[in-house]
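Changelog-adjacent note: as of this version, every example in the card shows the full chain rather than a window. The one below runs 138 residues end to end.
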Amino acid sequence: MTSTYQQMIFVNLPVNDLDASKKFFTELGYTINPQFSDEKAASVVISDSIVAMLLTKPFYATFTKKEIADATKSSEVLLALSAESREKVDELVEKALAAGGSPAGETQDHGFMYGRSFDDPDGHTWEVIWMDPAAVEG
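Full-length structure tokens:
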């Protein structure tokens, strides 16, 4: 019997200003799930299987004994999102830049693969990538 369970990923990110972070991600076209959001956290629905949990730094600290990285000064993680076309890569990155994000790295154009990156207001790096389906198939 095969399972129809779709595994999800919940990316937990420490943020300096929860309201500003919520505004940034809603300006990218994502929604906040109020069922899992309060004054300490916001649940940003990226897709049916991807959720970014934005946590105030004091709340984030309750989940780890490690020092919280300052993502504006050191790399903690690179978050990569797929896009359905080159145009959608550009569209999302341009929305991010207009909403207060900043460019991160150079545009990558390898013909069969195209990607751009941005840092959100807290310095977390997001890569947006399109790959030609024909190249993926073989």
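Structural remarks: The mean pLDDT is 95.
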